[in-house]
Amino acid sequence: MAELDVTLPEVFVQPGESHLATEPVIFRTILGSCVGITFLVPRLGIGVLCHPMLPSYPVKAPENARCTDGHRYVDFSVSNVARRLDALGAIRREVQVKIFGGADVLAVAHDALRPTVGKLNCEAAIRILQAEGFDVIASSLGGISGLNIMFHTGTGEVLLRRLG
Q: pTM for the whole thing?
């Protein structure tokens, strides 16, 4: 995807969102400590991009929580996508998964014993994807700079550009 296909619709996926497409589109997002997880099911022509911001859904959800609020969390987002793909006839072993982001983009004093949000997001993504039966075929995780990613749901290609 060296040249972006300008004929395809583009969808910018905001932090805390998850989008599923059944026709080819270009999903775009910008990641810092968040993770971007792409799912591609070539047989069904399905592509998904999730952009969760935090590792785990709270044990006790706030009373005013909306259903869509769960997509802010890695564990909720991945499990929700897994159920949606199952309902559409996907077989987990055929789903091509890629993970990006989880950087330490804020210059703060680091406590070596306390993991950063980016690191926790990366660990949560790997753990929940494995628990849900998905294999990760590519990743670019960690570091200190954000990423701009573009995911072509028709081909599965992900173009990434480091920021800063």
A: 0.89
**Domains of the chain by start residue, with CATH:** 10-57+67-162 (3.30.1330.200)
In a 10 Å sphere around its CB, with 0-12 CB exposed, 13-18 middle and 19+ buried, how is residue 51 labelled?
buried
| Residue bearing tokens 């294999």 | 135
Task: Read off the amino acid at residue 120.
Answer: L
Residue 14 has a CB neighbour count (10 Å cut-off) of 11
Give the pLDDT confidence of 150-164 residue by residue, as tens digits.
Answer: 999 999 999 999 997
Contact 100, 39 (CB under 8 A): no
How far apart (Å, rounded) are the C-alpha atoms in residues 138 and 96? 9
pLDDT digits (tens, 9 = 90+) for 126-146: 999 999 999 999 999 999 999
Residue with tokens 């399905």: 46
